[in-house]
């Protein structure tokens, strides 16, 4: 924080030159105190701030003033008197007396706190015991004034000596000091709290700004990474396709006969090329999914042929591993609204992953069942039924294996790109860690969800839940 800002904060906390009576007093406490003094002494009392704001007033209009206001000359004199009284400045710890046209007086006292005048205390009008006659100058104000009516009205004014009024004012200011001290303390506490809150808010804003900047940098780096992967993958795919094609031609003998060792080398080149092409295609799919450029060509598809196709495609891989791969009969299930190629890719990745982590003699099963999923939005075909149910008809596609299973603490991370449950260099199962990440993104793109469940006593279940109907009419 700058020095200037620190000084401003200190000024606000100590109040310094900004100290005012309005800031310090509690109006209700001040009103109770003033009324208590009035009940005791019956002398009209007013308290003004330094800016002339009336903070408390227990002054009833004396009957003599009501009578004088009926006459123009007297009324104008009274108005001028009120302005003079309100404008009196007794200075710090000062006291001034202002005579009234009736012969009574006003006593004005300075209210000071912390060495500064912050207001005025006005007592009056009251008359001294010696004052019993109507001043001659009062009768000169208007020829209609009747001295016989004025005398009894003058006698109704509060009676008090100067020393008595000064004594009252001293006790009143003492009580007021307590209120001011209490108000000052509360104001300091409030200002310190506000300053602390402002400082905390400023620090929070700075941290939010830094977090936003870091987020923007990471977002830009992620975008550059996706672009890099897409560009490199695309550039690698062209020469790799040629490598695979020429290795196939060599293996078929188009370039001449080869001995067994040469054929083995060419077959290895072809197989590794296929693995590399699969990796590149995975990277391309991932970059498209991350950038949102992959489009889905959805249509109504049947579940049973899809499961059979996936099972037949991966049957050679399962036999080579010694794993029993079966597709459970799911006849009678309704079709679903999905992209057949992308859904096939989801099931291929999950099934291939299950085969990879299932030991010899184990079983991998593909199945489908009718189910429901939460309906966050109307599917466009449910009509008013959405008012009575928060579930949407869905189909659950399940890939179950009897393999090594997935620890609970790993289940939340297996869908991260490039993540391996066994990430050591000596792991038995190969792979890049892209398959499940692509699966998760494809399922999300279909407005579905994927869950991992345990398959007791050994293995895991991947359950893909997809809505049976399109999410909207435009789907």
Which terms summarize this structure?
475 residues, alpha+beta, Helix Hairpins, Heat Shock Protein 90, five-stranded antiparallel β-sheet, five-stranded mixed β-sheet, 12 helices, 12 strands, rod-shaped, disordered N terminus
**Helix content bin:** 40-55%
Mean pLDDT: 81
Shape: rod-shaped
The termini sit apart by: 54 Å
The major sheet is characterized as: 5 strands, antiparallel
Number of strands: 12
Tell me the fraction of residues in β-strands, as a range.
Answer: 15-25%
Which regions are unreliable across 5 or more consecutive residues at pLDDT < 50? 1-17, 377-388, 423-430
Order of helices and strands: HHHEEHHEEEHHHHEHEEHEEHEE
Radius of gyration: 47 Å
Oligomer: single chain
DSSP helical segment count: 12
Please, how many domains? 3
Structural class: alpha+beta
Please give the order of strands in the largest beta sheet.
Answer: 2-1-5-4-3
């Amino acid at each position: 924080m700058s020095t200037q800002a620190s000084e401003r904060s200190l000024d606000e906390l100590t109040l310094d030159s900004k100290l005012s009576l309005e800031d310090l007093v509690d109006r209700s406490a001040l009103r109770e105190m003033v009324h208590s003094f009035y009940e005791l002494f019956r002398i009209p009392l007013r308290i003004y701030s330094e800016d002339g704001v009336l903070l408390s007033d227990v002054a009833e209009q004396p009957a003599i003033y009501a009578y004088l206001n009926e006459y123009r000359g007297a009324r104008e004199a009274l108005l001028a008197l009120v302005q003079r009284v309100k404008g009196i400045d007794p200075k710090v710890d000062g006291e001034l007396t202002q005579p009234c046209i009736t012969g009574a007086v006003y006593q004005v006292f300075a209210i000071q706190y912390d060495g500064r005048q912050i207001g005025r205390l006005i007592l009056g009008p009251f008359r001294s015991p010696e004052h019993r006659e109507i001043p001659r100058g009062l009768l000169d104000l208007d020829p209609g004034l009747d001295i016989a009516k004025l005398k009894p009205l003058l006698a109704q004014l509060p009676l008090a000596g100067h020393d008595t009024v000064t004594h009252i004012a001293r006790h009143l200011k003492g009580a007021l000091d307590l209120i001011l001290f209490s108000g000052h303390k509360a104001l300091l506490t409030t200002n310190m709290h506000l300053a602390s809150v402002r400082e905390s808010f400023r620090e929070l804003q700075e941290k939010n700004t830094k977090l936003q900047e870091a987020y923007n940098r990471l977002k830009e780096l992620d975008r550059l990474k996706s672009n890099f992967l897409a560009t490199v993958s695309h550039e690698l795919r062209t020469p790799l396709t040629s490598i695979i094609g020429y290795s196939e031609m060599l293996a078929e003998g188009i370039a001449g006969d080869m001995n067994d060792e040469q054929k083995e080398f060419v077959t290895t080149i072809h197989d590794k090329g296929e693995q590399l092409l699969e990796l590149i295609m995975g990277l391309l799919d991932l970059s498209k999914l991350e950038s949102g450029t992959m489009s889905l060509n959805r249509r109504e598809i049947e579940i049973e042929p899809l499961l059979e196709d996936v099972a037949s495609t991966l049957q050679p891989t399962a036999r080579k591993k010694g794993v029993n791969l079966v597709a459970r009969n799911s006849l009678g299930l309704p079709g679903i609204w999905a992209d057949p190629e992308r859904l096939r890719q989801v099931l291929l990745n999950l099934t291939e992953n299950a085969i990879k982590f299932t030991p010899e003699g184990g079983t991998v099963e593909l199945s489908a069942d009718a189910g429901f999923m939460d309906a966050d939005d109307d599917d466009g075909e449910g009509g008013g039924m959405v008012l009575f149910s928060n579930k949407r008809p869905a189909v659950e596609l399940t890939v179950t294996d009897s393999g090594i299973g997935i620890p609970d603490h790993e289940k939340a991370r297996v869908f991260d790109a490039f993540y391996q449950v066994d990430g050591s260099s000596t792991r038995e199962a190969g792979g890049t860690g892209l398959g499940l990440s692509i699966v998760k993104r494809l399922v999300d793109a279909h407005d579905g969800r994927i869950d991992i469940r345990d398959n007791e006593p050994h293995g895991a279940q991947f359950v893909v839940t997809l809505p049976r109907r399109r999410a909207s009419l435009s789907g």
